[in-house]
Amino acid sequence: MEDILGQNWTITPAGGSTGEAYYAQNGEKRLFLKRNSSPFLAVLSAEGIVPKLVWTKRLENGDVITAQDWLEGRELNTEEMKHPRVASLLSKIHHSTELLDMLMRLGKHPLTPEEILEDLKENQKVLDQVGSRIEIHQAINYLENHLSRAAYDQHVVCHCDTNHNNWLLSSKNQLYLIDWDNAMVADPALDLGMLLYSYIPVEDWGNWMEQYGVIPNDHLLERMKWYALSQSLSFIQWHMMRGEYYEADIRIQKLHDMVIRHKITTI
Fold this sequence. Notes:
Order of helices and strands: HEEEHEEEHHHHHEEEEHHHH
Helix content: 40-55%
Distance between the termini: 54 Å
CATH topology of the largest domain: Aminoglycoside 3'-phosphotransferase, Chain: A, domain 2
Number of strands: 10
Number of helices: 11
Mean pLDDT: 90
Radius of gyration: 19 Å
CATH architecture of the largest domain: Alpha-Beta Complex
CATH superfamily of the largest domain: Aminoglycoside phosphotransferase (APH), C-terminal lobe
CATH class of the largest domain: Alpha Beta
Structural class: alpha+beta
Strand content: 15-25%
């Protein structure tokens, strides 16, 4: 990174799951750098969904480095996820034909419930490591028994991890959704399910979804439940495979709360 920016820049790791992100500072100049970001980042920047893309450089080894504005700001807290601005920005993303066209051109095909369930089953031995947790088995059985109800053919760009720490509120009060490494073309219920089940009280779903721009119906609600459970299991698997057992336990507890609160059964 120093070879790209010069010796006057201070570069520090920015954390994250890939270990390929950095902060860079030279006096008042500050950048967020990332190695091998998707070309999708340029469209996200143009749409105002992520902080502004400043430049892109390709290295001799083929790696691509992107630089974005490094903004003063903070992640949203769980209470702020109820705010209409969150619903509005997610709606903008889901209704953007530009984002969908770009992701399709990058070779992303629509993700189906069948593929998600197959992937979970292929890695079920990871979930079996927490075999005494009945909610794991209840969730898998629910996904199997309700697979046909998750069918839907109007796909959009989904972020796939709408956790509150991926929502950035800048010091200038601009809201962004960051960390797009796992974006997919999929049913919008994938994003909606995890967000609403995690942060929005059921009695407020109607108001929140009105801000998003949709009137909930039984089919949408069934799909949201299906995806909320499947994403919960996927995140548990992901943390377990990385040896992040504390984080996996947090996800398991959230799944437990979801199963109890919403009376999810296997039938």
